[in-house]
Amino acid sequence: MKVNPKQDQARHSLEGFEQVESLVNGVIVYAPKSKTKEQKETRVYSCPNCGATIAYDVTGGGIACEHCGYISPVKSEALGRIADEFEFTLETVSQAERGWGIKRQLLNCNACGAELSMPRGAISTSCPYCASNQVNLTTSLDEFLQPRFLIPFKITMEQTHQLARNWLGKGWFHPDDLAASNLIRRFTGIYLPFWTFDARVTTHWKAQVGYQKTVRHYNASQKRWETRTKIEWRWENGTVPFNVDDHLVTGSSPRRISHTILKRIYPYQMKDLVAYQPDYLAGWQAQAYETTLTEAWETGKQAIRDAAKEACYQDIPTSHVRNFSMTADFADESWRYILLPVYLAAYKFQDKTFQIMVNGQTGLVAGQKPVAWWKIWLAIGALLAPGLILGLIGLPLLLLGGAGILPIGAGIILFVIGIVLSFMLYNKARQSEAK
């Protein structure tokens, strides 16, 4: 068989590459083949003294057995902010390790679709996201990137329950028995996936900037000099450097976990970052990322642009700005895939499901709380009542002889104030229940 030299040359030039998915129809894309990694020995987390199951202990900072007291420190390097970052190149992604580094089980929730990595042998009867008991366990696959760094849990389960009770007891417009009830019977400690991004951003802005100017003019009808303020507009531009360090973007889907609540338990202290070791996950749940690196970077870039825009407005010496435009040039972009500790609980109150989260490093609490709406309506009534009462008192006085002008005027002012305060109170109550 005769071999075409060009075809033979092309075949040899593609050795070491494999075809990958192309985003453009009709274009074939090849990438370096991922290196075959040696099969790592499966770790078995059982106590060498008594044979019981061991897990990572927050207080002891190592793998511990609650039966005989055995403890072994985790051999991991504390890195903090000097933890390696990676450029946005195909090579860094293709060469990254996959999986958790140990065999784990995968919890699938039939109600909300959540997938969580769990220790082998674990038995779970409910989903920590939606409190559903329609769950099943399967074998965890190693298809996703392996995290390179994490922040270990610092807050214990006992501290979490106390923090949650204190948080539930705050706020007069919630049900009286909310803190006293045993609604939250069990928190789940979960390592959630996050992407962190660094970048050097140079922003160039252009806008019409207004400056107030006081001018004097002669009022001929009043025969006097008067002053008035006018705004003079002129085009200006500027350049603002904006550096981004460890901008967080969650890798969890908003369908299962509220990103609004999650952001309320920020920030995390990146000085506590350590190199990833499977030992930290012993006895704990973990979630693989659902938002890919590319999707997370698009979300991160938009947030960075918004922050850069605010920095440009701060660079302008006056608040009078119109026709604003901005360009943002990104350079030295880098990323990290990390795990961060979160305690999560879903509880039901009057047939409604609410979420609560606790920062596993700092203990900051955020979540949803039911509202006793009868308290809200009573409070709104109390805020509006003074204005209405003064108006009702002033109206007959006005009809009798004009003495009711003052109470009517005061009543209108108090009623407007009451409406504003009522609107603020109503929004605060709605936000308490919102995800």
Structure description:
It contains seven helices and 17 strands. It is flat and about 100 Å long. The strands form four sheets. Strands 6, 10, 11, 12, 13, 14, 15, 16 and 17 form a nine-stranded mixed β-sheet that branches. The N terminus is likely disordered. Helices cover 26% and strands 32% of the residues. A hairpin with a 5-residue loop joins strand 7 and strand 8. The protein folds into three domains: 33 residues, no CATH class; 263 residues, no CATH class; 61 residues. With 435 residues, the chain is an alpha+beta fold. It starts with a helix and ends with a helix.
Topology:
Blueprint: H1 5-13, E1 17-20, E2 29-32, E3 55-57, E4 62-64, E5 71-73, E6 86-87, H2 90-94, E7 105-109, E8 115-118, E9 135-139, E10 149-150, H3 157-168, E11 188-219, E12 224-250, H4 259-264, E13 274-275, E14 285-286, H5 293-315, E15 321-349, E16 352-359, E17 365-367, H6 373-401, H7 405-433
Helix pairs in contact: 6-7
Q: In percent, how much strand structure appears in the residues? A: 25-35%
Largest sheet: 9 strands, mixed
What best-fitting shape do the alpha-carbon axes yield?
Answer: flat
Question: Which structural class matches the secondary elements?
Answer: alpha+beta
What is the typical, i.e. mean, pLDDT?
78
Helix content: 25-40%
Distance between the termini: 68 Å
Indicate how many domains the architecture comprises. 3
Poorly predicted regions are: 1-13, 35-42
Secondary structure tally, helices: 7
CA radius of gyration is 31 Å
Query: Which series of helices and strands comes N to C?
Result: HEEEEEEHEEEEHEEHEEHEEEHH
Number of strands: 17
